[in-house]
Amino acid sequence: MNDNSKVLVGLLVGLAAGAALGMLFAPEKGTETRDRLSQSLKDLGDSIKDKAADEINNLSNLKDKVVSSVKTKLRQSEEEFVDDDLEHA
Question: Is 76 helix (H, G, I), strand (E, B) or coil?
Fold first, then answer.
């Protein structure tokens, strides 16, 4: 499990524990507490979606860099191979 997954799992466990404790000790009516909890969960979901989109973008950029680097190395190797063939011909 990578660090991002561990952080996400920890965040979700902490959220669940906080929600349970909040409901037990809340001085508000149940409906108000549920509404606030629902909004908090929606905000958390939005935050997770944003973070996931950022990570996907980062991975896409990394993929593009790796592909570009591999293509450059292949071109260099091909040029060296052609140069060696011309020298030995």
Answer: helix
| Residue 71: per-residue pLDDT | 94
Query: Does residue 15 contact residue 44 with C-beta atoms inside 8 Å?
Result: yes
| Cα 12 versus chain centre, distance | 15
Burial class (CB in 10 A: 0-12, 13-18, 19+), 10: exposed
Q: What is the pLDDT of residue 5?
A: 75
Tens of pLDDT along 22-53?
777 777 677 887 788 788 888 888 888 888 88
| CA 71 – CA 76 distance, rounded (Å) | 9
